[in-house]
Amino acid sequence: MNGPLHLDLLTQLLPEAVLVVTALIVLLLDVRAFRGESIAVRMSRAAWGSILGLVAALGVLRLEIASGDGPAATFLLQGPTQFLKGLVLLMALATVVFAIPGRFTRHVGEFFALVLLATTGLLLLAGTENLLMLFVSLELVGLSLYALTAFHDRRPESTEAALKYFLIGGVAAALTLFGMSLLYGLTGSLQLAVIGTRLAANPVSPLAWAAMVLVVAGLGFKIAVAPFHLWAPDAYQGAPTPAAALIATGSKVVGFLLLVRVVHIGFGSAAAGSAGALPWRPGWLPVLAILAAVSMLVGNLTALRQSDLRRLLAYSAVAQAGYGVLGVLDPAPESRAAVLYFAVTYALAVLGAFGVVALLESAGIEPTLDGVTGLAHRSPLVAGCLGIFVLSLAGIPPLAGFFGKFFVLLHAVDRGAALDRIWLVALALGTSAIGFYYYLQILKRSLIRPESGVAPALPLPLPVSPLNRAVLVMLAAGVLALGVAPKLLLEPLGASAAPPVTAAAP
Amino acid sequence: MIAWPLYLSLFGALAMTLVRRPDSPLPRRLALGISLAGLAAILVAVIRQPPGAEPVTLLRWDWIPSLGASIHLAADGLSATLVLLTAVASVAGVLFSWNVRERPREFFALYLLLIGAMHGVFLSWDLLLFFVFYELAIVPKYLLIAFWGSTRREYAAMKLALYSFLSSAAVLAGIVVLAAGNVPRSLDLSLLAQFPVADRVQAWAFPLLFAGFAVLAGLWPFHTWAPTGHVAAPTAASMLLAGVIMKLGAYGCLRIALPLMPEGARDWRFVFGVLSVIGILWGALVALRQRDFKFVIGYSSVSHMGFVLLGLAAATPLALSGAVLQMVSHGVIAGLLFGVVGRMVYDRTHTRDLNELPNFRLDRTLPGATWIFILAGFASMGLPGFSGFIAEVHVLLGTWPVSGRFVALAGVGILLGVAYTLRTIHQAFFAGDGIPADRMPPPLAPLTLPEKLGAALLIASTLALGLYPRVLLDWIQPVLAGPHFVGLRRSLGL
Amino acid sequence: MNSLPVLSLITLTPLLGVAVLAAWRSAEGVTARRIALGTSLLVLAQVVALLVRFDTDTATLQFVERASWIPSLGVDYFLGLDGLNVLPLLLTALLIPFSLAIADPPADRPRLYCALILLLECGLLGNFTALNFIHWFLYWEIGLIPAWFLVRLWGGPGSRAASDQFFLFTLAGSVALLIAFQGLFLAARTFDLIRLAELGRAGELAGTLATTLAWTGLDATRLGPLLFLAAFAGLAVKVPLVPLHTWLPDTYAEAPTPVTLLLTGVLSKMGVYGFLRLLAPVFPQEIRALLGPLLILTVATIVLPALVALAQTDLKRLLAYSSINHLGYCLLGLFAVLDAAPASPAWDRERSAALSGALVQLFNHGINAAMLFAGVAMIERRSGGRRGLEDFGGLRAVAPRLATIFGIALFASLGLPGLAGFIGEFLVFKGAFALVPGAAVLAVPGLFLTALFLLTLYQRVFNGPVNPAWKAFPDLTRREWLLLAPGVLLLVLPGILPQLLLRWVNATVVVHAGRMLPGP
Lengths: 506, 494, 520
Known about the structure:
heterotrimer, A: mainly alpha, B: mainly alpha, two-stranded antiparallel sheet, 22 helices, 73% helix
């Protein structure tokens, strides 16, 4: 068989190539040509350059590429994957837009280049089923994001957060690599599909189990499940807000895709084990179940005591990661669309929330619960969008967040007649009540009237550029629309478009 | 046409945001117009074609094909009855809120949204759609209480919201069970009714689902949100809360929990029966000792809803008919009681303390309110001629085969109801007779036309139902004997 | 069977008056009373017209109206007139205008007062003509509410406690009654009183009760009596029977006298009528089985209040106890009918006697009590509200006409032959002596005691030296005399011509006395 033809490779990886080129151009231009300008101008130009590049990448993204051997084996390029890549590009776009008014760093070109490179890594990560490629892309994303975290010139905690992120990330990467090498050793292949078949042929040995645990741990770090989440609060709070936005959204979405792929295809249902009625059988299922349970508890309970919005979002991210992992528990193919729907809609809401945080910061207000007080009467539009984001995160219909939760809960329950894993569902619902409480607090604070005696944080209406406003509204509209008509998102992500065949009456 | 109230309310809520000036009279007129149009629509619809046992589909759209969820609105006799109740309560609520001065635009927008959500629940024929509407009601409830309410409103609003959320979480767990455990993957109620979940699963899923719904209906001991919430809420919200929203929970029990998990219903009958009876007695006993006028009504709501829950727990056809009748009856009566206490009395006297109200000599200064409350009180007591009597007779007759002790205890509850109602009537309106004539009470504004119209509507409704209950029974009983409840009848051996 | 629903019309006529009173805001006391009086006289006219057409030779139901109301509960709108309820109907129609006429409405809220009286009339008329339990129960409760208000709003100083006690007792009884009939419904699937009577007589009820209520673990021999006791309790409160009578003296004393007149004249008859129409036809076996204890209670009701009356000094209280005592005779007659003697023409004659006695006593006591309380009202009006036995003396000298009329009423109450009261008591005791001699003997002291306290009353109030305070006690005005005259006639004429009353009940009594027995 021929090796991959490099031209073929290029065509199939065109979006990634465009992004890399853009990154280099933006970096060069900023270092060479625009050094003398003010930060505002440089930010603006670099941002617009990045936006151009992202839009171009979107343009060349093809939604259907014939699969087969060769590059398509290394890079999965069917419809849902391509669609998800498009969404990641859009998220990166929003992040860049939110970055425009920021003045947090002098190294403008480097910042945007790193953003673009991280995005490239995410796209590559989304497109592969090969362990090695997976690891390489993971590192690309990781290193870019660690660096981005440190980019805030004036915040000392930025550097500390980056260091923490890097150290923990390094350990996680090492664990992942170790686990992957074990898998290779056990099965002799780097392709997930092959690994899955070969693992299924043999009963789950302790070594295989160890390999699975290690890989899951590494991936779990990426999506910030407990107990691998300790980097998240500092990173969300310390990093410059656009960077935090990218970490919280793009990285998370792709992380989930990865988890689903590795676990379902790479490990397969034979190695699953059980986590329902006692006694449990060993496999990846009990591990994920425990991770999910711990994340839901730790995330929600800790978030209760946060007053800084970014830290609150971080801990709520931990909890939401826990919910997402619930959806991964079902090895059936339908669960993929559900988990991805959850991740994407979650990302949209968080992106919007971070957008509001960025706006507050640029107006000089600390983004805390106090900072949000009275927002509705100073900037009704911003507060309205924030309300939608927050309620979606809380899981209130008809917003998308509710449906995301519902879908993952459906898949968390064992499909058999016994409905074994109901304890997880109960835990999820109980902890989401806690979540409801602190999300509602945000909403309530924003609605407090000036006449009630509590002074609003903002003396004047928030200055919002038209572009920012447009992005916020689009995100809010998206959250609402995807709730009212979930199939808009579900079907491109791989859910079936026909009603299920009704079985014969029992 | 039965779905018009739903569409109109949602449209109205949206249209309200277009009103420019925040304190124009337009919001309340718009709200009144929409509720009246909705009421007219449902009346015309049921007169033209009386609803029967078979649900008539009003709207159907494939929503989430991979789950088998559709946007499916349908109405049978049971839905029509409750839509009618909501329509009546919404008109009365608007009339009793005619004097809202603070941010009427937002108030009425939230109000219409709430009404729309309730209509949506009663008309949903898809499990997911049902839950969406059910949950949709939580945030407007919270906002209405937190921003337009009185006594400890923020605490009350949060408590209410959290209880609602938690109980809906239990409901969601039950729905997940139903959706995941069913062989044909569909969330359509007609299909689900034919393929119940396994008995083993029902053993724990039924109490989860039923209790989840029943908490919203004031199941003891999870009822404490109700009095606090009702007292803190502004009048129109209390009327809706006690009048209709508590019925959402009961409707969920009846429409979803009982027919879709019939074996569970049979096994848990006794437990929920006991809890209902305790609720009847507890609510009455606590009401007897309240000092705050509105708290009396709040606890009496818990007691009355106990009858609904008793009927649902007993689950015989008579008991279920009685439960539905009591839903409608209490919906109207609670609206009336809160209207008098909140709007007529409190807005004028600014006190609800039963020890202070005698100073106002309400039987002389506000005779209209006095007589309306007396009539409402009699209706609440279950005096024949009013709707409560017929409802309670049905529930009691239907509960006999399950347990005579329940019936006897419920009877005691009726007596306690008489006691606290009489005590309250006397204390609030007539106790001023001992006050010397030279201590003249401050003059009070007379009843306005909207108040009188609202009260008249509700009194007429309770009398009509009490004197001619056939109107509703002809809609309800075919449904209970129909295909949707066949599993329940089979499991109960009826 | 008439096509015009006359009974419904009669029942609803008072509501017209209520509507007029509600709408006419500026009406003062005089006008209000005229409206109420006019309405109630209209009712009376209708009733009289009805009586003219009433066929006294048949026992079947007349003026029947029937329509399906709540099919799922077996509830029909069912009215009818026969010998059992024709006299109570007439009594109501007579006493309501009488009570309105003998005293002015109170100065405080006269419109409300008159409206409540009319509402009460509606409840009473409905109760006496209803033949389906739920329908009957509706009016039973409707009769309760105006009574509560009338006592509470215009009563004496203790009216609040008295009215609450009255309400709660009666309501508790109502609940018990309701529960009992619910049990019957579950057995027979109907609330129709006529049908239930047929089933009860045929002895079928007990059997079906045992099967439908089998889950209670009680068999037929326990269930029947249990339900009977519940229903009995409900009705016994209203009559009242000892020991459920404790609400009565306070309520009668605290209520304004025209209201007390109605309470004793008509409302108490609701209870007795309930026994006649509801309890006895449906539960004949149970009554027979429990006849001993029931008779003991009845005798207690006859004797004990009479003893207590001896100790009373308040006129109204005294007459209240006297009321209880007189109603006991009605029940004695009723229970005598159901005794264990076999059915034979001789026994049947005795039974008819007892039953007619009970029915006639019902009517007569109504008129009698009304007259007595009217007298008290007259006295109160002149004495400024004082009504103690010791307050007066020698009024006969000052107010001879008042004394005469009061005396006639008193003697009628005693049962003096030649006056109406004698007929009822005589017939009751005639039947009772034959059927339940033990109880009859024990009840005789009641007669003596009644004579004792009534005569004492007369002696203290009217005879003896004139109390100087009342030297200027005015006698009856012409108007009052005219008002009381028909009552006197009604007390005297039936005494001389008993058939005047007996003809209404004879046909029905003959059939019922035999029918009420258990067995085919």
